[in-house]
Amino acid sequence: METKNAIRSRRARGRKRARGLRPIQIWVPDARAPGFAEELARQCRAEAALNVSPQGRAEAEFWNAVASEAWASLD
Fold it and tell me: How many domains does the chain have?
């Protein structure tokens, strides 16, 4: 026998599907995991160091242009 919560959830999902939505599941890094903060800090330092060099700025400009074109193509 379904509980009230299960029935309510099933109905809510049905309404969302009727509006053209669908559920998805995504996996993201666990910010609570051991070593996460250290790895984040390492990547931030690497990014900051890259942005101060002319070569790093050129690379960032390239990827920003690529991303801009990709987003613009979605319009």
Answer: 1
The count of residues in the chain is 75
Q: List the domain range (segments joined by +) for residue 50.
A: 4-72
Query: What Rg value do the Cα atoms of the chain yield, rounded?
Result: 22
Tens of each residue's pLDDT in the chain, 75 residues = 889 999 999 999 999 999 999 999 999 999 999 999 999 999 999 888 888 889 988 998 999 999 999 899 887
The pTM score is 0.51
Element (H, E) at 60: helix 54-72
- Give 59's contacts (C-beta < 8 A, 6+ positions apart): 50
Rounded-to-integer distance, Cα 67 and Cα 43, Å: 20
Contact 58, 52 (CB under 8 A): no
